[in-house]
């Protein structure tokens, strides 16, 4: 049977919490963060769907991220329904292998979702090597001198780097063999670092193909910066600043919406949408930074489809316009001016909503509140004012 006629399934391992990349508890998991306007997981999946020899792609996700995955809107007849992963990577891969059992693919490739820039060439090389071996993985020779240390402070030995390589994914195997090896490994009192190690432990013949320096794993914040530069063609970026201002009066009601959070109150804000004065100001700030007018241009109040609409829709749209330019939102700052209701108890939730909507860390979002010292219409509790600023990075065009 020729290699092209073999059925080849791919497991995309995306079940981790993805917390290491950020410093804030509200950090978007790294597999769902945007890189050059596209979620990391979407890029990883598409890389394999673009390869003509791949017959099935199975995402293994964290069940707590199910809604995030569904919101990716991925669609392809070769893309299988995502399944939930296990407590660690090894358990997640086994769950994926078990789920592929009824399909009985000839070969399986196992790939980390956090490597979104894997090339078609690397994928093809791994598949080709499986014609003669039980397993294959891409790897890069080490260029730095490697020191061994027992305590992390004193050098105990210098390794021969000529015998060492840095492993990447996808790692490919004959399906039946790696499934059997993983099932046996469950009973071993140790956690294997990757699937190739399990294959080696099981006595399978594993070979290496040349890896790719751009097939690196997104782990730390600087990795995302590097990936952004690569995917945008290393264009020179420039920072732009936008500001926004909005005001809404009170009318009879029982709650107000501020920064996407519903706050019970003796009145509500008057407006065509949900009247979230703070998100309106922030949306205008982002639109202003990229020269795209104001919120009324994109969502006219005369259009009845926006009556009562959640203002997070407007904010997300502004974020998407930045992404289409190949840019990113660096940070945003919202100031709410009101005598009441009290904002402080809700500030953390507000930052979380904004961060979620924009796809950025909550550490890049500030929400502040002040009163008007009982002066003017704000002091008379007739309405609320919000001011916002946003900084974005976009490719320089002049």
From TrEMBL:
Residues 240-398 are annotated as: 2-C-methyl-D-erythritol 2,4-cyclodiphosphate synthase. A divalent metal cation binds at residues 246, 248, 280. Keywords: Isoprene biosynthesis, Lyase, Metal-binding, Multifunctional enzyme, Nucleotidyltransferase, Transferase. Residues 1-239 are annotated as: 2-C-methyl-D-erythritol 4-phosphate cytidylyltransferase. The record marks 161, 217 as: Positions MEP for the nucleophilic attack. 4-CDP-2-C-methyl-D-erythritol 2-phosphate binds at residues 246-248, 272-273, 294-296, 370-373, 377, 380. The record marks 20, 30, 272, 371 as: Transition state stabilizer. GO terms for molecular function: 2-C-methyl-D-erythritol 2,4-cyclodiphosphate synthase activity; 2-C-methyl-D-erythritol 4-phosphate cytidylyltransferase activity; metal ion binding. Pathway: Isoprenoid biosynthesis; isopentenyl diphosphate biosynthesis via DXP pathway; isopentenyl diphosphate from 1-deoxy-D-xylulose 5-phosphate: step 4/6; Isoprenoid biosynthesis; isopentenyl diphosphate biosynthesis via DXP pathway; isopentenyl diphosphate from 1-deoxy-D-xylulose 5-phosphate: step 2/6. It catalyses: 2-C-methyl-D-erythritol 4-phosphate + CTP + H(+) = 4-CDP-2-C-methyl-D-erythritol + diphosphate; 4-CDP-2-C-methyl-D-erythritol 2-phosphate = 2-C-methyl-D-erythritol 2,4-cyclic diphosphate + CMP. Its cofactor is a divalent metal cation. Its EC number is 2.7.7.60, 4.6.1.12. Residues 240-392 form the 2-C-methyl-D-erythritol 2,4-cyclodiphosphate synthase domain. GO terms for biological process: isopentenyl diphosphate biosynthetic process, methylerythritol 4-phosphate pathway; terpenoid biosynthetic process. The keyword DNA-binding does not apply. In the C-terminal section; belongs to the IspF family. Bifunctional enzyme that catalyzes the formation of 4-diphosphocytidyl-2-C-methyl-D-erythritol from CTP and 2-C-methyl-D-erythritol 4-phosphate (MEP) (IspD), and catalyzes the conversion of 4-diphosphocytidyl-2-C-methyl-D-erythritol 2-phosphate (CDP-ME2P) to 2-C-methyl-D-erythritol 2,4-cyclodiphosphate (ME-CPP) with a corresponding release of cytidine 5-monophosphate (CMP) (IspF). NCBIfam families: ispD (TIGR00453), ispF (TIGR00151), PRK09382.1 (NF006899). This is Bifunctional enzyme IspD/IspF. It comes from Devosia equisanguinis. The lineage of its organism: Bacteria, Pseudomonadati, Pseudomonadota, Alphaproteobacteria, Hyphomicrobiales.
């Amino acid at each position: 049977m020729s290699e092209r006629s073999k059925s080849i399934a791919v497991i995309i391992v995306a079940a981790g919490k993805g917390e290491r990349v950020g410093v804030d508890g509200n950090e978007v998991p790294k597999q769902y963060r945007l890189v050059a306007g596209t979620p990391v997981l979407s890029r990883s999946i598409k890389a394999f769907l673009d390869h003509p020899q791949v017959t099935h792609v199975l995402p293994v996700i964290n069940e707590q991220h199910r809604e995030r995955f569904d919101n990716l809107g991925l669609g392809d007849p070769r893309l299988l329904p995502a399944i939930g992963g296990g407590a660690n990577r090894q358990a997640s891969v086994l769950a994926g292998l078990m789920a592929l059992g009824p399909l009985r693919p000839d070969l399986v490739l196992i790939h980390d979702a956090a490597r979104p820039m894997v090339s078609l060439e690397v994928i093809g090389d791994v598949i080709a090597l499986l014609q003669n071996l039980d397993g294959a993985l891409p790897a890069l020779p080490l260029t730095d001198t490697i020191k061994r240390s027992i305590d992390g402070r004193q050098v105990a030995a210098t390794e021969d780097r000529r015998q060492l390589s840095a492993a990447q994914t996808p790692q490919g195997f004959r399906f039946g063999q790696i499934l059997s090896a993983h099932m046996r490994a469950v009973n071993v009192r140790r956690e294997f670092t990757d699937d190739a190690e399990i294959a080696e432990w099981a006595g399978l013949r594993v070979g290496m193909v040349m890896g790719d320096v751009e097939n690196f794993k997104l782990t730390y914040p600087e990795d995302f910066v590097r990936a952004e530069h690569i995917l945008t063609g290393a264009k020179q970026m420039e920072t732009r600043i936008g500001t926004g201002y909005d005001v809404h009066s009170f009318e009879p009601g029982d709650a107000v919406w501020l920064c996407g959070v519903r706050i019970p109150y003796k009145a509500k804000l008057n407006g065509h949408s949900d009247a979230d004065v703070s998100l309106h100001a922030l949306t205008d700030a982002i639109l202003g930074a990229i020269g795209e007018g104001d919120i009324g241009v994109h969502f006219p109040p005369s259009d009845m489809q926006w009556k009562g609409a959640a203002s997070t829709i407007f904010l997300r749209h502004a974020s998407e316009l930045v992404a289409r330019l190949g840019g990113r939102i660096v940070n945003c700052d919202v100031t709410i001016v009101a005598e009441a209701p009290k904002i402080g108890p809700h500030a953390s939730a507000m930052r979380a909503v904004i961060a979620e909507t924009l796809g950025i860390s909550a550490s890049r979002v500030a929400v502040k509140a002040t009163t008007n010292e009982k002066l003017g219409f704000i002091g008379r509790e007739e309405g609320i004012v919000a001011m916002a600023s946003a900084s974005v990075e976009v490719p320089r065009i002049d």
